[in-house]
Give the backbone structure.
Amino acid sequence: ESGLAAIPVTGTVTGARPGDAVVLTINGSATQYTGVVNPAGTGFSIDIPGTALAAGNTITATLTASDVAGNTSSAIDTETYTVDVTPPVATITLDANITADDIINLAESGLAAIPVTGTVTGARPGDTVVLTVNGSATQYTGVVNPAGTGFSIDIPGAALAAGNTITATLTASDLAGNTSTAGDTETYTVDVTPPV
């Protein structure tokens, strides 16, 4: 959000007329953002750059209200907010063994689904995990488990048997909406040749 060109800051007014001036000051800056009371005479919406909002944590609104006789009065309100632009520090680690022996054999290559599992840190439940097998364009997507500790994504045995590398990418998020990515790669062995 700190990178957005415009974030609408809204509020309500009483005793004002449509078109009366509203001025917002952000964090005591000399820069002012000006708007007007809406046609209903009930509120306002003024766009402010995300960078300006991220530079502090206080907005002051000043309304200059008028009546039909031309008399004016001012009203002021101040609100605070929180700024958090630090992305989470996340990791993802694929489990060392794809199967019990870390070898895809002939029988396993025919399975409809082999669960590929791993652990994560710095992520929240529901964050996205994407597995890429052997550099293929096909991606297998899952989410971090309800405990926020790991994942399990089913991959067809045939896809695993086509190579020997899995890459996992985690997109982690925090409560403020900041995101970061983490990755891990594991190799395994494929042996689909039956004994003679």
About this structure: The first helix runs from residue 50 to 54. The radius of gyration is 28 Å.
